[in-house]
Amino acid sequence: MSSAHTPQQAALGGIRILDLTTVVFGPYASQVLSDYGADVIKIEAPGGDSTRNTGPAREAGMAAIFLGINRNKRSVVLDLKQDAARAALLTLVDGADVLMHSMRPSKMARLGLDPATLCARNPRLVYAGLYGFGSGGAYDGQPAYDDIIQGLSGVADLMRRQTGTPQYLPTVAADKTCGLVAAHAILAALFQRERTGRGQALEVPMYESMTSFLMVEHLYGGHLSEAPDAMGYPRVLTRWRRPYATADGHICMMPYTDGHWQRFFTHSGHADLAADPRFLGIAARTRHIEDLYALTGEIVARHTTAHWLALCGELEIPAAPVNRLEDLPRDPHLRSVGLFVDVDDGQGHNYRYTRSPVRLADNHVAPAMAPRLGEHTREVLREAGLSEADIAGLGGFA
Questions:
Q1: pLDDT per residue over 355-373, tens digit each?
Q2: Among residues 181, 171, 167, which one has the least CA distance to residue 212?
């Protein structure tokens, strides 16, 4: 492997990942790993990942959604319907640490790319299947996208409880949450391999992953299985849980501890509420969360945003203004930590990315441009030892 692609000073320098996934779930997971320095080789069909055409673009195949989840990768085009392309992929598998895919297991088996075959070929391989539903379950093999998983896992119902209407979150929450689960599962398997010398097959099902994520707080009374109480954490479900309207705008304000609430009520001129038994202690506040947040909203509406930001600063109560999406690149904190980075595409144009939010003292991987379709086909296949004749026989994608 070329150290130019996976610098050894990076946390995952020297790790090669073959990524056969598409859309958001898998590519987001592999981008996390590429940010840690893994050499992620994106294996694409001749038409490319569909996200290459999703959103505004300066050039064909390099649309916004693709840019957001494919930085720091290399692109190889292989038509896996062809015997020669499958043979080339198997050659890449011989030198890979991870293969990740989001195809149905039956399709991978027909291609000769099932976990038993590949792990026998390369016993150190971590084989990650990213699926909608876990194998052996009632929904095994069914297609799944973010909207489907948000609906099944309870997201839309949580929104109904809060707003009165079933809705999806206005972000691809299931794809990205499950992508993070996949990234840490792959890291765990790699860590275990370092101790045992053996790779393994793993699966990351979206439905189970997203349900587990939501149940952290929303299993709630369901934890008491012998005599279950109501599920759903009341504090985050109340319709009043939203930025408070001020006299001239909105503010995100979060009194949480006993001290926060005592100081807020006292210094806002409502000492009676500071002594109200409904709001003494977190258990009581949770039971009366609707009243608490409604009263707080009435109080906050009487003064400006600046007034409350200043007062909350004095009282050490967490508070912040409401940023619009367009405000984020100009946010003073995000600017000072350099979260947004402009990257030269090699053709005289700049593209804006966010860097990895994680900082490791010994991981030095700067954001790099997402790859053009097939940009690295010849380079990667040469590294794997394929001849020019072999590469030429793959259909002219190199």
A1: 999 999 999 899 999 999 9
A2: 181
Distance CA 102, CA 21 (A): 5
* Cα–Cα distance, 284 to 302 (Å, whole number): 26
**Coil, strand or helix at 356:** coil
User: Does residue 2 register a pLDDT over 90?
Assistant: no
Q: Which residues contact 164 (CB under 8 A, 6 or more apart)?
A: 239
Residues 6+ apart with CB under 8 A from 115: 127, 129, 201
SS3 assignment, position 63: strand
Nearest to 73 by CA among 102, 105, 100: 100
Residue 169 structure tokens: 């979150």
Contact 57, 89 (CB under 8 A): no
Has residue 1 got a pLDDT over 50? no
Q: What is the mean pLDDT of residues 202-231?
A: 96
Comparing 16-213+337-392 with 244-321, is the CATH topology the same?
no
Provide the H-helix boundaries in 168-257.
173-196, 206-218, 234-237
pLDDT in tens, 262-312: 999 999 999 999 999 999 999 999 999 999 999 999 999 999 999 999 999
Using alpha carbons, list the distances in angstroms from residue 146 to 171, 242, 357: 9, 24, 23
What is the structure's pLDDT at 5? Answer: 55
pTM above 0.90, yes or no: yes
Contact 281, 329 (CB under 8 A): no
| Residues forming a β-bridge with 101 | 129
Q: Where are the domains of the chain?
A: 16-213+337-392, 244-321
- CATH number for the region 244-321 comes to 3.30.1540.10
Superfamily of domain 16-213+337-392: Crotonobetainyl-coa:carnitine coa-transferase; domain 1 (3.40.50.10540)
Helix (H, G, I), strand (E, B) or coil at 100: strand
Please state the rounded mean pLDDT for residues 7-35: 94
CA atoms within 13 A on the CB side of 170: 1
- d(C-alpha 231, C-alpha 220), whole Å: 5
Report whether 39 contacts 343 (CB < 8 A).
no
Q: Please state, in angstroms and rounded to a whole number, the distance separating the CA atoms of residues 31 and 49.
A: 15
Cα(first)–Cα(last) distance of the chain, in Å?
19
